[in-house]
Amino acid sequence: MNAPAPRKKIAIIGSGISGAAAAWSLNFTQDVTLFESEERAGGHTCTVDVDYDGTPISVDVGFIVFNERNYPNLCALFDHLDVKSEKTNMSFALSLNGGQREWCGINLGTVFSQKANMFSPSFLWMLREITRFNKQCLKDRDGGFLGTMTIGQYLNKRKFSKRFQDDYLIPMAAAIWSTPKVKMLAFPAMSFIQFFENHRLLELEPPTWRTVSGGSRNYHQKLLATLGDRVKLNTQITAYNKSDDGSVLLTDQNGETERFDAVVFACHSDQALSILASGDGSEETKSVLADIKYKPNRVILHRDPTFMPKRKKAWAAWNYMRETEANGEESEICLTYWMNRLQNIDFEKPLFVTLNPTREPDPSKVFGEWTFDHPQYDQAAFDAQKRISFLQGNDNIFFAGAWTGFGFHEDGLRSGLEAAEALGGHVPWRSLEPEALPIVVAAE
Known about the structure:
The chain is α/β, with parallel strands linked by helices. Helix content is 31%, strand content 22%. Strands 8-7-16-17-18-15-19 form a seven-stranded mixed sheet. The chain has a five-stranded parallel sheet with strand order 10-2-1-14-20, covered by helices on one side. A hairpin with a 4-residue loop joins strand 7 (92-96) and strand 8. The chain is globular, with a radius of gyration of 23 Å. Pfam families: Amino_oxidase.
């Protein structure tokens, strides 16, 4: 009878969906330690409890929604952990300069919530262009027309109007990726269109979206429940070094160094780069990570309705609030999530999450403030993603994170599980377990 394989000592850096999932999967077969630099575990999984005039309400300010088609692993995880969810709404609205121009995509009535839209040739033409884009972009993709064009170049090449670009497509994409307009226009057209098709954004009937009942922390707490004191909060890993025997040496902010058989960098690409640059990270790895950049976004949870469209009929789940500066330049992306609609919260207690507010909300109406960083995509970033797969396992280093895909929860989960499987982890709902990659295990 063969003796069981020795348990490997694995470090995971980052406690968001990628790190938590990797730790949960590996905990069945390996000895795992999870490091988190913040005082709270979860990353973008962030559920907040607020006292709303004496009524306790739990609300998410990071990850909020998912659907069955585009989040297969997340749905399987929720089924396995018995995490309850409920239907939600993912409508979109745009408001320009305090309501000078507004529309909302819930139905025909909300599209014309601003009556002037019915008599605006440019607005009516924009509606026609939505149908044209939905069909034309797929033909151009399949016909090889896109090449290496950015979405901005493609829209100009196909002569889509400025109104269509400024009031529909680019705001919607900017809201999805939490990215300013100018950077959104630099998004590779091929990847942009592929994403829109996969998420049924080119169809009139959207997928059914869902939200975790009671807040997303309900799944995250279950992932970390079995780790106990092996979750090290307020512990920032500052340097990585290689030992002569092939093991990994990690040093924290206090100068403490610990040896591991392998490490999973389940943090942001720029954070992984900082750690590797402070030690023995390879030049190739650092070059790849440097091409996937992050941008911080300020997030405020509040009850101030002035951060929503001027017309109540134009309120949607996602509200793109655009302001034009005195010099004619557009403001930083500002987006307000209507949490009552997104998480089925009592409409008598309005709750909003605003990303990068263009002015300060009434302090008496603010419940909290956070900063969440989001990956910024261009051709260099997508090229780097292709290269990262060839680096997995080198020097017993693995990478996971939403940045390895399109920046969403499913991407983070998938990459975390893939890293875990490569190290011998277990994913209960997968019928075929991939063969674990070889790893150098140092002698005790």
